[in-house]
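Chain A, query sequence.
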Amino acid sequence: METRICVNTYEVNIWCDECSKKPNPSCKLKFSGVVLTSFPPQYPHYCELCNKSFTLLKKYPYIEYKE
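Chain A, predicted structure.
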């Protein structure tokens, strides 16, 4: 039996801790394209405004679904 559920789609982003004190859309972290093959994998990101580097356990942005 098939059922259908209405879901909402969200894009999840992360912002630079240093720059985001002032509202600026350029403070969004950008994925560098490199994956560190540790366990668990790590994903380097950088701030488009201040160029500060962050290594995170998730790759941003990602899509999330909620009922």
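The first strand starts at residue 8 and ends at 12. The beta strands are 8-12, 29-31, 43-47, 53-56, 62-66.
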